[in-house]
Automatic annotation (TrEMBL):
InterPro entries: Porin_dom_sf, Porin_O/P. The lineage of its organism: Bacteria, Pseudomonadati, Pseudomonadota, Gammaproteobacteria, Pseudomonadales. It holds the Pfam family Porin_O_P. Residues 256-275 are annotated as: Disordered. Gene3D superfamilies: Porin. It comes from the Bacteria. Residues 1-24 form the signal peptide. This is Porin. Keywords: Signal.
Length: 437
């Protein structure tokens, strides 16, 4: 009996040994020891902090339903789509270098006409050896505005302010490349400036890409979670001389589902507000395209309020054309019912981290967007300024640090514009499920 039990033990031990050889090995390094972290993605780093590699991502699944001005015939339509599906890889090289590669499988995160197979949202390399100055090169979005600086994972409403639609080029890379220098000055000041070559489809008659300059400056005398006082100034300019381009100023008025670049949308019945400009604007019509903006925010405990203002002017370069001007602003108030403060890092808001792991964090918010444009060219010369007003009322549930569920009611009203059915207002809702890893 003893021999039988011993034989069984030996057999079990041999099986375990074979399994261990098949599924485990010895980890060795030729330098510093490594640390593996699994919270918020998978990160492997050396203990001397010279090298690191982190893989993460975000998935945002949206469903929306809307009617009135949001559709051409005024009837109800809906849309279900992945707003973002990012795979993100980043890390540190030789202490002073940092890299970031973000690939969007949804091809729905940026502007129009994204590739059906996805695209690189970012592919950049930064040198941080001139502390506190960082120099970044590659493909990445220019900096313009507080909501743009805040990650799409942690912006309060499902879509950023409609004011950005007035100058959608200011904070989008449009498939181009750039170089940017940024720096913190003490604990209260942040500055960045960059030059970009972009808009290959809008190249001038010689095939020269559109050149753009961006500047952002932030002063935040209060800059900790739940204790924020933030002011910012933004300037962006691009050269459109001898350039044919799509000059339309359009807005989805907070309802992405009327026209998505990937997934279901309202199809040909989806309606977007056109405020000014014309498609296929000929080369030589306009010269300098300039935008500037102001931003401000205040937070105390679970309460926060923020706002932005944007003004754009497209200067005519031919006698047959008039300048195009656009103005927009937004104001938002938010309150965390469960008491948590919004995170804040110099220049941007960050995540809300639930204190209670059982009920998570619950946030209510309201945002108002106002946009308008003045265009005295062509058909626009016979109408007054076209305006859009958007109300967003929503509830966010941060179930934990990885999962966020939200629902937002959106109501829009336009002046001096209608859909094909004669509607000048519309409403709907957006539901989002977000997973961050």
């Amino acid at each position: 009996m003893i021999r039988k039990h011993f034989a069984g033990f030996v057999a079990s031990a041999l099986a375990m040994a074979v399994t261990a050889q098949a599924f485990a090995g010895t980890v060795t390094t030729d330098g510093a020891d490594i640390v593996v972290k699994t919270k918020g993605g998978l990160e492997v780093a050396t203990t001397d902090k010279q090298y690191s590699f982190k893989i993460g991502g975000r998935l945002q699944a949206d469903y929306s339903r809307f009617d009135g001005f949001y559709t051409n015939n005024g009837n109800t339509a809906d849309a279900g789509y992945f707003r973002r599906a990012f795979l993100e890889i980043g890390g540190v090289l030789a202490t002073d270098w940092a890299y970031q590669v973000n690939y969007d499988f949804s091809h729905n995160a940026g502007g129009d006409n994204r590739s059906e197979d996805g695209y690189f949202d970012e592919a950049s390399l930064a040198y941080n050896g001139f502390k506190p100055v960082s120099i970044k090169v590659g493909r990445f979005d220019p900096e313009f505005g507080l909501e743009k600086a805040t990650s799409s994972k942690w912006v309060t409403a499902p879509e950023r302010t409609a004011a950005y639609d007035l100058a959608d080029w200011v904070n989008s890379h449009n498939g181009g490349l750039g170089i940017q220098a940024s720096s913190n000055i003490g604990e209260s000041v942040y500055l960045s400036g960059g030059v970009f070559a972009k808009d290959a489809t809008n190249a001038d008659k010689d095939g020269d890409s559109t050149k753009q300059f961006n500047f952002r400056g932030v002063f935040a005398p209060l800059h900790s979670d739940g204790n924020v006082l933030h002011f910012g100034l933004n300037v962006a300019q691009r050269d459109l001389s001898d350039t044919a381009f799509d000059g339309r100023i359009r807005s989805r008025l907070g309802m992405r589902g009327v026209s998505t670049d990937g997934g279901q949308d309202a199809g040909t019945n989806g309606n977007r507000l056109t405020l000014a400009g014309a498609n296929n604007t000929p080369a030589g019509a306009y010269d300098t395209d300039r935008a500037w903006g102001l931003e401000a925010a205040f937070a105390t405990g679970p309460f926060s309020v923020q706002g932005e203002y944007l003004k754009r002017k497209v200067e005519a370069d031919a006698a047959a054309y008039q300048d195009i001007k656009a103005t927009g602003y937004t104001a938002q108030v938010a309150y965390t019912l469960t008491g948590e403060a919004r995170g804040y890092k110099l220049g941007k808001f960050d995540a809300i981290k639930p204190q209670n792991k059982q009920i998570g964090a619950w946030e209510v918010f309201y945002r108002y967007d106002h946009i308008e444009a003045e265009d005295d060219n062509g058909a626009y010369a016979r109408v007054g300024d076209i305006e859009g007003k958007v109300h967003n009322l929503g509830l966010n549930w941060y179930a934990n640090e990885s999962i966020k569920l939200s629902g937002t009611y959106i109501k829009a009203k336009v002046d001096n514009a209608q859909n094909a059915n004669g509607d000048d207002d519309g409403d709907g809702f957006v539901l989002r499920a977000q997973y961050v890893f």
